[in-house]
Each structure stands twice: as C-alpha cells, then as structure tokens.
Design a protein that fits this description.
The chain contains 7 helices and 12 strands.
Amino acid sequence: MRVLLFVLFCCPAWLYAQTGTLVFAYPEREKPPLIAEAPDNHGLYLDLYAAAARKIGMQLKVVRLPKKRIFSEMRAGTVDLYSGSFAADRADFMNWAENGLVTRELCITRDDVAPLTDLDHAPRLRLIVEIGDSRTTLDARYPALIPTTLGARIDMPLAVKLLQGKRGDLFLIEEEPFLHYMQQKHLTSLAPLGLRAHTHCRGPAYPMLMGVSRFSSHYGGVRNPLFDARAPLSAHNLPERIAPDSTAGKLANALQQMKASGETRQLADKYLARPAGY
C-alpha cells in the first residue's frame, strides 16, 4: 500500500480524520535530520513512521502546527502521534512508546566552563530555553541551573550566537541535531567557535519516544501492572499502557520489530554521520 503524505495548515479538525490514516503532528520548525522546515516533511521521522504505518496497513498524514495547537488537537483526538520527550503535565492526554531510535542529550557551553560530567555538580549556569520548552523546569532537578527563556525557536545556530554573546551559559541539544550541525559546518569540534560540547553531562543514551493521543480513535489503554504510585511518573510508569491490540499498540510493535531487524538503524544511517574526532 502506498503511503500518502500530506501537509495541512490551520484546517478544520474534521479534515484530519480519514479511515486507515494515522495523523502525525510536529511543529513547523526544522529539526534536522529528524524533520525539515515546513512545508517540507522529509527526514528520519517521516521515513520511520511512514514505514511502520505501512507495515500495519495504515497511511500516514503529516501536519505541521504550533506546539500548543498540536496538544490541543491531541486532546480532541484529531492528532494521533507526536514525537517528543515525556512530560508529566501531558500525561492526561498522551501516552508514550519507544520509537526504536536512541539518543542522548549534550551540553553546549563556552570553552571557559570546565568539563561537565554530571549536572548535579555543575556551577551556576543560565540554561537557554525556548518558550514552551519542557526544560524550563530542569532547575527542580538541577538547582544550579537558571532557566532563561530567550525566544520561541532556538536551534543550534542561534544557540551558538547566544552563547558567544553571553546571553546564556548552557544549551542542551539532542545528539542528532548536534551531529547534523557539525556535519553542515564541517567541524570536528566546537573549539574554533570558542565553545565546548560536553558529551556525558546528561548520562547515557536513552530511547526516543513516540507520543500517542489517549483520545485518538486508534488508541486503546490497559492497566499497567508495573505502575508504582510511589515513584515519579515517567513514560514507563503510568497507570495505563498502550493496549497491544490497538492500532497504536500495533504501530509501537512494528517500530520495535524494525529496530530488532536493523531496519531502523539503516534508516538512521542515511541521515546521521559522526564527524571525525567526535
């Protein structure tokens, strides 16, 4: 079955719903190599989710909307899927499954900051965040950090300018966009920019997540027998997990099968290249 891909802006919600279609939403901004600037949807996310949808006999529709609008549509059940990290304040309308990709978060600072191996022991640093960023609450986990909102869309090129201009002291970025930036700029380190990448400041690599609307017609939930009410909420510690026999559950299973077979790694290798010396 051919996978049909669409871009939709600010259309009535009823236009999203189609039989046999999963609606994946992402903000209009680019996040290379995962997704290009709207209206271009090309990137690793598109290849990954389109392939998984095809394996369960579904089509994929891509919509690009502001983040707040995406969450509103997920609450309404008109957007099914979103790729992003776990946030407890979204658990009332979203559940999560691993999408088969693995990433880690890097810390970018000026080169006058000593090497960081654990943010628990970091000095006082102004953390550069964007409007609506879930990292605005990281000071609760790391009291030395001072979240500083400096714009609505902060990518690596802008973060470099903000750090060089001493508007902030620390920027957190996932490994994939960082590697893409290094590749595009033909850099093997950030030293020529007067910056430093701290590759182990946020711990080991972790699975990337696919968010699923709990109000989607493709969602089904079952009790999570491993839920621990005494532990903090997380993607794997929620009262409900995605039902394996629901469409969302079948999609999650297809993604795991793609990971196990090496298909996901092959897709990722099309986009990700580590610079020499990284």
